[in-house]
Amino acid sequence: MPGKRARRHFSQLSEFERGQIIGMKTAGWSTRRVAGQVDRSVCAVRNCWEQWTREGTHARKPGSGATRKTTRREERRIVRQALVDPTVTRSTIRADVGVAIVPQIVSRHLAEANLKS
């Protein structure tokens, strides 16, 4: 099909791209022309422009989901304890860190560090 672009992997609009979109749309460019220029979908350009006209900003909103229960420092401490004593249990690590977390969080941090539980 002529004119059909191959799908590329999804990625967020960068701040620079958002600024480009706002500038081109402000200058009177069509949404399709802007989308072709920045190599993004028409829908992404339209959403960015609508956010700009509605809220007056083009900044990304913070993501949804649960807030982190541990800090980066506490995560490093969990991994360090597992490296120093490989026989230590999740419950012991959890008690040593001193933060109210469930044992699954300890396991997840160890898995992220490529350690077996």
From TrEMBL:
Source superkingdom: Eukaryota
GO cellular component: nucleus
InterPro entries: Homeodomain-like_sf
Ranges for region Disordered: 54-74
Subcellular location(s) per record: Nucleus
Gene3D superfamilies to which the protein is assigned, alphabetical: Homeodomain-like
Signal peptide: none
Official protein name in the record: Transposase IS30-like HTH domain-containing protein
Originating gene: NCL1_35029
